């Protein structure tokens, strides 16, 4: 549901259900072999071979196989999916937590790769690449033009560790072409966006996904915040669609007490596997809050459910997505993969938070969150549909509900006014980042030699950029009236200026200052 963000361009995939229509066969040779009804598992192979050998036109049988596998999985559940080889490597890389490349954040501006920001301590920064540089060539390969695709750009900038690439750069600030050689290196993809203190005693950790490195990143963030005096912890998994289940378990183990049940799974045979917290977590004392929204799913919900059901902390925000299915991945020789649902998971109280779905109707399943806008659920807690038959009790006897996401203990409505839900979506995408980059590109000295505190004072009250942003949206064909939401739009714009000019922690310092969910937590 998201446009690619400029800070970690990630190639997203969608699983579409393809209908397959097999009409009557006519004029085929009488000697052709019949497909055995008993040997149904060979039907697909036999059919593919038959098409490959006999079909009147040339057909790419690999594409037929892809469609067939996709169609089969689409009729199981919305989370059993086929991942083509072209997408699998990127997804696997994202879950691994690092890749080998030159280390830049970029986006295509006027069909040219514009460097938004070189990654801190990365090869590009060490080689002299600067914000605003346009990358024209990688070695002798042209990287600009209307038809250039992200996959091709990635393939030319990534490579083996310590391999070199000669970049041809146009530096707008100096109006000159430069040749810069960059040695590729391992670039971390951090899953912890920020670890900051909200006040002298409250720490905040933002998790963007659950990857292989998330547990370690979270542990290090906890230790850092404890050294700064943290007594209360806020874990933010809003907009976090999940990832590796074991990482959610590791994080829960950091805050839960010894032998607290974290989660249990049940497979088709009824086998139950329970996972408990261990002794020695880094933050077993002190208040804990978890921030959720309608896009928090899977591992995010495991973490929130474990904390809620064990009465270890309170959940704040809005009802989560509702994914309670566990997948296992199987890879093929060509690099593609299948993620197959193998079990359901349950929170410690016994809740399944998987929302209902109809087999073969994945599109309707993923659009369910849109109905929450229409029903008013995102503005009023009483509009959340709760089934009385799905009541469960926490460890201390509080009532919680299953059947479709984690319902928060403290409800906080959408910040944008009713009827402006599309603006909420826009603010969560990379559009604000693109706008800010272009402003800085046009005025490169805008905040030069300005400290962060001076920057905050300068943009704290009046900000001309809201009107400019409204015009920017209109030029994109998005006619959205911002007059009723100036304060929230201004905050996102100022935060984005802070990110691009000062850093990620500064972005969150601005963004969280007037965040209504954060305000609700701090009032606890």
Describe the 3D structure:
The chain has helices at residues 43-54, 61-74, 85-96, 123-127, 150-157, 214-227, 245-255, 299-309, 362-366, 368-375, 421-427, 431-442, 452-458, 465-475, 486-501, 504-513, 516-522; strands at residues 81-83, 98-101, 104-109, 112-118, 134-138, 141-142, 164-171, 176-183, 185-188, 192-199, 202-207, 232-236, 261-267, 272-276, 287-292, 314-317, 325-331, 337-346, 391-393, 399-401, 410-411. It is an alpha+beta fold. Strands 3, 4, 5, 6, 7 and 8 form a six-stranded antiparallel beta sheet that branches. Strands 10-11-12-15-16-21 form a six-stranded mixed beta sheet, sandwiched between helices. Strands 1, 13, 14, 17 and 18 form a five-stranded antiparallel beta sheet that branches. A hairpin with a 4-residue loop joins strand 13 (261-267) and strand 14 (272-276). The chain folds into three domains: 98-188, PDZ domain (Pdz3 Domain, Roll); 192-328 and 344-411, 2-enoyl-CoA Hydratase, Chain A, domain 1, CATH 3.90.226; 421-522, no CATH class. The protein is globular. The chain contains 17 helices and 21 strands. Helices cover 32% and strands 22% of the residues. The protein starts with 42 loop residues before the first helix and ends with a helix. The model is unreliable at 1-36 (pLDDT under 50).
């Amino acid at each position: 549901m998201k446009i690619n963000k400029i800070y970690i361009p990630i190639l997203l995939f969608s699983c579409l259900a393809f209908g397959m229509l097999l009409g009557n066969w006519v004029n085929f040779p009488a000697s052709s072999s019949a497909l055995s009804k008993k040997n149904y598992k060979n039907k697909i192979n036999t059919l593919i071979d038959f098409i490959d050998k006999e079909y009147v036109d040339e057909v790419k049988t690999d594409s037929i196989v892809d469609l067939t596998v996709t169609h089969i999985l689409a009729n199981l559940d919305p989370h059993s999916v086929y991942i083509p080889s072209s997408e699998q490597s990127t997804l696997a890389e994202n879950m691994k937590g690092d890749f080998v490349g030159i280390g830049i954040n970029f986006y295509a501006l006027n069909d040219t790769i514009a460097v938004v920001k070189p990654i801190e301590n990365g090869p590009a920064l060490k080689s002299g690449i600067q914000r605003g540089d346009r990358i024209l060539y990688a070695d002798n390969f042209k990287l600009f033009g209307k038809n250039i695709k992200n996959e091709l750009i990635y393939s030319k900038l990534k490579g083996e560790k310590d391999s070199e690439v000669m970049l041809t750069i146009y530096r707008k600030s100096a109006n000159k072409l430069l040749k810069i050689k960059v040695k590729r290196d391992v670039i971390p993809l951090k899953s912890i966006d920020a670890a900051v203190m909200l006040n002298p005693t409250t720490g905040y950790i933002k998790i963007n996904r659950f990857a292989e490195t998330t547990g370690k990143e979270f542990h290090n963030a906890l230790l850092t915040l404890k050294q700064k005096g943290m007594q209360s912890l806020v874990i933010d998994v809003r907009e976090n669609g999940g990832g590796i289940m074991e990482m959610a378990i590791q994080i829960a183990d950091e805050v839960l007490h010894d032998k607290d049940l974290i989660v249990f799974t049940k497979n088709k045979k009824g086998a139950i596997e329970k996972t408990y917290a261990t002794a020695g977590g880094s933050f077993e004392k002190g208040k804990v809050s978890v921030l959720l929204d309608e896009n928090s799913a899977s591992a995010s919900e495991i973490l929130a459910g474990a904390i809620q059901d064990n009465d270890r902390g309170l959940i704040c925000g809005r009802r989560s997505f509702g994914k309670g299915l566990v997948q296992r991945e199987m890879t093929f020789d060509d690099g593609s993969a299948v993620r197959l649902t193998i079990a359901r998971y349950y929170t410690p109280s016994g809740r399944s938070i998987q929302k209902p779905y109809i087999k073969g109707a994945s599109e309707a399943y993923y659009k369910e969150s849109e109905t929450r806008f229409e029903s008013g659920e995102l503005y009023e807690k009483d509009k959340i549909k709760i089934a009385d038959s799905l009541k469960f009790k926490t460890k201390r006897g509080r009532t919680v509900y299953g059947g479709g996401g984690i319902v928060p203990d403290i409800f906080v409505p959408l910040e944008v006014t009713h009827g402006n839900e599309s603006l909420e979506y826009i603010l969560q995408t990379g559009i604000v980042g693109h706008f800010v980059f272009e402003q800085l590109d046009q005025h490169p000295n805008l905040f030069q030699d300005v400290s962060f505190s001076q920057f905050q004072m300068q943009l704290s009250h009046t900000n001309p950029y809201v009107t400019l942003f409204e015009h920017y949206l209109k030029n994109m064909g998005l006619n959205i009236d911002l007059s009723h939401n100036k304060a929230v739009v201004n905050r996102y714009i100022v935060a984005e200026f802070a990110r691009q000019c000062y850093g990620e922690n500064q972005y969150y310092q601005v963004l969280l200052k007037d965040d209504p969910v954060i305000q609700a937590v701090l009032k606890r």
